[in-house]
Amino acid sequence: MTIGIAAIGPAAGAGIIAGLRAVEKIGRGAIGGFVSLVILSDDGRLLRASVQDGGAEALFPEETPREIAQAQFAGLISSGPNRPEPLSQFITAKPGVGIVTGHRMPHTKGKDKIALNSIVLAEMASGKDPQEAIDRVVGLYPDMDAGFLAVSVDGRMGIGNCQSVLTRRDKGMGILNVKSGAAKVATIHNSIFPHGLVSTLANHVAMDTMFHQGIPKQWIIIKSGITLKFGARTQVHIDSSSMVEHIVTSNNTCLNGSWAVGLGDIVEVLSRGVRLGYLGYEPFMTLLNGQIVDIDGYKEIKLPVFAQHPCVEY
Fold this sequence. Notes:
Layout: E1 3-8, H1 12-26, E2 28-29, E3 35-40, E4 46-51, H2 55-59, H3 66-69, E5 73-78, E6 92-94, E7 98-104, H4 116-125, H5 130-140, E8 146-152, E9 157-161, H6 163-166, E10 172-177, E11 184-189, E12 192-193, H7 198-211, E13 218-223, E14 228-230, E15 235-238, E16 244-249, E17 258-261, E18 268-271, E19 274-279, E20 285-288, E21 291-295, E22 300-306
Parallel strand pairs: 14-16, 15-18
Antiparallel strand pairs: 1-5, 1-11, 2-12, 3-4, 3-5, 6-7, 7-8, 8-9, 10-11, 13-22, 15-16, 17-20, 18-19, 19-22, 20-21
């Protein structure tokens, strides 16, 4: 039982909520109940939100508060319903240090009557790397029924299970890093199926949400009759009224004869030579000798443009 998700980067709060929501929609098992969430705000505050039943949908049934959605450091823990109060005991955090979540029973008390997740946080506060802090606690308490996921405010992560949890066949965990180093997401879980998919699903949905939030930067209009030209890379050029003037494609094969084509996964949108962003949707187009016959079966459609291209590099 339990899933812990944490993220560092733009819109980390929105990302982990989206990741949990995806797991709840697709998976089965110990999900859809309590959620305890914590974020460290940009101005140094620690904010919490929780719900005993209903999962991510019940946590924020309307729009997620902006200060939570846009937080750069966020973590949550979730499982079935009706856990002992306070739900904050399952995930601990401290401004200037970081967040410690996990799965199974990370709030279990050690020999000194201090919760294990609090010990991990204290180790981090003393200067230890999150992974080092987790490894120390796991080494001290190998028989405890707990696993931990920690993030520090300087962008480091750690993840690990006590020895007793390693014997489980339904466990899973994973860390996803953006190549640019701008963001990280990690998930640790058990008793949620299909267990081999859960961390991958949560991490990728979270990361996609973090980099592609909100409404498009702009909408452009593309009509049939436009002729494609060959060039080094695929680009869509628009005029001042957001109408597509011409399209450059790196695929010269489709410029002769009858073809059904897409533009590709990374398509720049330019106006007067200045890049505005990237096409956020790839339409299905039919061409005749390089000229557009229709787009998704229509003679004219609107396409979204986003500041970030849709493929984050991992």
